[in-house]
């Protein structure tokens, strides 16, 4: 069947639904971080909130920004370790950094967060959502986290929010950097980057390699050490074609091989991940009021295992035409976008399945005096499900120069993955999951002192889950009999409190999340979601040293949907210290889980215990 083009999407726009069922107070946007290090300055520019560059002071949405300096100071082993410090995010793992990782944003499923790398959407049409453990932290320059539904901007998947990851950019000059590190479990790493450019061309290249012997991720399984090996590359080249036109090419390639313990005891199971993103973007500024951007991108996620054979590969290709027009104090944006999903999996029928979505999106942002308004509407025409309209409305009001109130409402959806529909566990007539959210808030900041509160409630209908027992799908018999189904409704409600101050020479930061991620049909908490989590951070300068510490607390959770398998609460203490040992040389030391707390984020899977890391960086200024 011939696939319609984007031109067909332009005629398909229907009135977007702007609805909600609860109150949300959103003070804690980008400046409200759990640690002083990640507080964005007033000059910070963000992209994720509206897909347009905006000063942080103009953003109404609930956004967090983490830059490369904060990532370097953290000494974190993986991207998930950085995200675990961000308000509203809970991370779980089936073992070490290279094992299956879930990122729950505001308590919502991993698949409910749309993830981009340099504007390239990445998604697995088998598991649903991004493969977090395959994204190399060594290549990450900046992270933007948008909390709250954003389907009116990004289409399917963004029921809980959006996380956008940026690799390094080039700049005029010549800037090399090399970092070596060693740590517990015989971990060793080597990373190198090179950035530079002229008035016409800029570039950034990065190489990374990491090895670790690991630890036994599943004590009840094969009693071996589940080590891993990571190799990654990132590249960006920008070419200024004319005074107000630029072409950018971005590439990320990450290969990971890791040991894991599967269902069969004694097997020396190995998994291989290959994540690749490629993007080509052309931007033009025609005059003072009109900008155009064209983007062509592809994200590929490949996963295979041995000796237990399994192979799945997802490709997500997108084409975007975006026009922005300044209208007085407002900015109008119009997007035409096409997305194609392609899954190759041995358990689907046929083994290669695909679909496409054409979309038209319109946005309008306006700011005058104390008032800020953002309106977005989008219509997606899916080849399998037909039309889906979404919308969002956000308003901010500066009560005083230091105090700001915001309120927003939005709808979102996610179509079922191709695996959920066409595998042996699949149900072809699954419905799309849909969400309705409303939030409002306050934010106060005066110098180094800041405080924020956000209250939210997100209602999701037709939630998809695996239903055990005989069903209508092919997998109706056997040990793992069952199939996917729309199990009912879920509610993700909660409040996030953030704040920070400077007490003498010590910078203090804190965040507290009180959440109620609940299955409305059963009244039970959703699996592995905590009702309480908190972070407390402190850092200070002592002579030539920079010292830091963080306390992370995660409350009691249940490993299963029936709430019969309890996971105990835990509290971790992490410590860092860094100093310049010579011109252009920096030494960093980190101790994670300093009290050697034994805990589980997934039942039956071990965690690392106390670990040490020592890194040395050469970066000439």
TrEMBL record:
Residues 1-30 form the signal peptide. InterPro entries: Beta-barrel_TonB, Beta-barrel_TonB_sf, Plug_dom, Plug_dom_sf, TonB-dep_rcpt-like. Residues 199-593 form the TonB-dependent receptor-like beta-barrel domain. It comes from the Bacteria. It is found in: Cell outer membrane. The keyword Acetylation does not apply. Pfam families: Plug (PF07715), TonB_dep_Rec_b-barrel (PF00593). The keyword Transmembrane helix does not apply. Coiled coil: none annotated. Keywords: Cell outer membrane, Ion transport, Membrane, Receptor, Signal, TonB box, Transmembrane, Transmembrane beta strand, Transport. Residues 57-162 form the TonB-dependent receptor plug domain. It is a multi-pass membrane protein. Its main location: membrane. Belongs to the TonB-dependent receptor family. This is TonB-dependent receptor domain-containing protein.
């Amino acid at each position: 069947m011939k696939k319609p083009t984007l031109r067909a999407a332009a005629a398909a726009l229907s009135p977007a639904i702007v609805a909600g069922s609860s109150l949300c107070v959103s003070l804690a946007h980008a400046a409200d971080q759990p640690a002083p290090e990640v507080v964005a300055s007033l000059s910070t520019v963000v992209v994720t909130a509206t897909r347009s560059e905006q000063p942080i002071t103009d953003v109404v949405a609930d956004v967090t920004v983490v830059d490369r300096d904060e990532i370097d100071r953290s000494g974190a082993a993986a991207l998930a370790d950085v995200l675990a410090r961000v308000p509203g995010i809970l991370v779980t793992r089936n073992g070490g950094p290279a094992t299956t990782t879930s990122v729950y944003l505001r308590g919502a499923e991993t698949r409910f967060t749309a993830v981009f790398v340099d504007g390239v959407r990445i998604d697995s049409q088998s598991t649903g959502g991004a493969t977090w453990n395959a994204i190399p932290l060594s290549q990450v320059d900046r992270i933007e986290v948008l909390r709250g539904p954003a389907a009116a901007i990004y289409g399917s998947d963004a029921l809980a929010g959006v996380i956008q990851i940026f690799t390094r950019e080039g700049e005029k000059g010549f800037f090399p950097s090399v970092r070596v590190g060693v740590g517990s479990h015989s971990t060793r790493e080597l990373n190198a980057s090179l950035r530079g450019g002229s008035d016409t061309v800029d570039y950034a290249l990065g190489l990374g390699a990491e090895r670790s012997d690991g630890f036994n991720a599943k004590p009840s399984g094969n009693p071996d050490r589940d080590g891993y090996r990571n190799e990654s590359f990132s590249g960006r080249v920008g070419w200024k074609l004319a005074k107000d036109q630029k072409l950018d090419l971005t590439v990320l390639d990450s290969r990971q091989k890791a040991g894991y313990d599967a269902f069969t005891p004694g097997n020396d199971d190995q998994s291989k991940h290959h994540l690749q993103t490629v993007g080509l973007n052309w931007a033009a500024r025609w005059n003072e009021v009109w900008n155009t951007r064209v983007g062509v991108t592809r994200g590929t996620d490949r996963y295979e295992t041995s000796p237990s054979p399994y192979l799945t590969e997802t490709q997500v290709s997108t084409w975007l035409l975006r026009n922005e027009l300044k209208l007085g104090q407002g900015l109008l944006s119009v997007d035409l976008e096409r997305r194609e999903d392609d899954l190759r999996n041995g358990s689907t029928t046929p083994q290669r399945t695909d679909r496409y979505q054409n979309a038209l999106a319109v946005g309008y942002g306006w700011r005058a005096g104390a008032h800020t308004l953002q309106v977005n509407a989008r219509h997606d025409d899916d080849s399998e499900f037909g039309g889906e309209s979404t919308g969002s409305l956000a308003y901010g009001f500066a009560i005083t120069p230091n105090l700001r109130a915001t309120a927003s409402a939005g709808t979102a959806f996610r179509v079922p993955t191709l695996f959920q529909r066409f595998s042996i566990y699949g149900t072809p007539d699954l419905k799309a999951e849909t969400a309705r959210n409303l939030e409002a808030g306050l934010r106060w900041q005066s110098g180094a002192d800041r405080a924020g509160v956000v209250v939210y409630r997100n209602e999701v209908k037709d939630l998809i889950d695996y239903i055990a027992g005989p069903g209508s799908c092919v997998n109706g018999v056997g040990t793992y009999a069952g199939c996917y189904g729309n199990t009912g409704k879920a509610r993700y409600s909660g409040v996030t409190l953030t704040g920070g101050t400077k007490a003498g020479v010590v910078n203090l930061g804190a965040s507290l999340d009180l959440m109620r991620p609940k299955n409305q049909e059963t009244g039970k908490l959703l699996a592995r979601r905590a009702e309480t989590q908190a972070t407390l951070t402190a850092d200070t300068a002592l002579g030539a040293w920079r010292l830091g510490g963080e306390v992370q607390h995660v409350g009691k959770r249940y490993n299963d949907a029936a709430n019969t398998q309890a996971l105990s609460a835990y509290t971790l203490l992490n410590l860092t210290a860094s100093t310049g040992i010579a011109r252009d040389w920096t030494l960093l030391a980190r101790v994670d889980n300093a009290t050697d707390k034994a805990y589980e984020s997934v039942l039956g899977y071990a965690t690392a215990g106390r670990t040490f890391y020592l890194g040395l960086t050469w970066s000439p200024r």
